[in-house]
């Protein structure tokens, strides 16, 4: 089973990397860009019998820092 | 307009970060995980009249390294 996990900073948490990208886009002449935030995408092949609970645990224990980050799990097939 | 850009390593390009995560998951006792690959997600608010061409240019010029990375642009609304 293919799984995608999207990890992003919680709203309100400062994103210096996003700011740098925003600034760089402006420097390159791209106008009209407002807010930029950078997140992570983890693509995994897991055994078909992997439970939602196990996936959730992987995120909470390793893949995301739940103090400042939210995550979303998406099963691809 | 909200836009999400997903950047990931091309197939065949070595992903040491993904390997490290894979190894760490096994160390934590999560079995059945096969392949792990890490990508980036860039969320942007752009002006509604931003063309697909401009978005494509942003990716090619700054957001992705097209030598080793693929990108996908998704308009959220």
Automatic annotation (TrEMBL), chains A, B:
A Pfam family recorded for this sequence: PurS
InterPro entries tied to this protein: PurS, PurS-like_sf
Keyword entries, A-Z: ATP-binding, Cytoplasm, Ligase, Nucleotide-binding, Purine biosynthesis
Catalytic activity as recorded in UniProt: N(2)-formyl-N(1)-(5-phospho-beta-D-ribosyl)glycinamide + L-glutamine + ATP + H2O = 2-formamido-N(1)-(5-O-phospho-beta-D-ribosyl)acetamidine + L-glutamate + ADP + phosphate + H(+)
Places the protein is found: Cytoplasm
Domain of life: Bacteria
Pathway: Purine metabolism; IMP biosynthesis via de novo pathway; 5-amino-1-(5-phospho-D-ribosyl)imidazole from N(2)-formyl-N(1)-(5-phospho-D-ribosyl)glycinamide: step 1/2
Main localisation: cytoplasm
Enzyme class: ligase
EC number annotated for this UniProt entry: 6.3.5.3
SUPFAM superfamilies, A to Z: PurS-like
Family to which the UniProt record says this protein belongs: Belongs to the PurS family.
Function: Part of the phosphoribosylformylglycinamidine synthase complex involved in the purines biosynthetic pathway. Catalyzes the ATP-dependent conversion of formylglycinamide ribonucleotide (FGAR) and glutamine to yield formylglycinamidine ribonucleotide (FGAM) and glutamate. The FGAM synthase complex is composed of three subunits. PurQ produces an ammonia molecule by converting glutamine to glutamate. PurL transfers the ammonia molecule to FGAR to form FGAM in an ATP-dependent manner.
Self-association and partners: Part of the FGAM synthase complex composed of 1 PurL, 1 PurQ and 2 PurS subunits.
PANTHER family: PHOSPHORIBOSYLFORMYLGLYCINAMIDINE SYNTHASE SUBUNIT PURS
Name of the protein described by the UniProt record: Phosphoribosylformylglycinamidine synthase subunit PurS
Organism for this UniProt entry: Blastomonas marina
Gene this chain is encoded by: purS
């Amino acid at each position: 089973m293919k799984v995608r996990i999207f990890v992003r900073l919680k709203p309100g948490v400062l994103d210096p990397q996003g700011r740098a990208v925003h600034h760089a886009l402006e420097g390159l002449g791209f106008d009209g860009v407002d807010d930029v935030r950078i997140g992570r995408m983890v693509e995994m092949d897991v055994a078909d019998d992997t439970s939602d609970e196990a996936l959730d645990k992987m995120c909470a224990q390793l893949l995301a820092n739940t103090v400042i980050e939210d995550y979303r799990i998406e099963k691809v097939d």
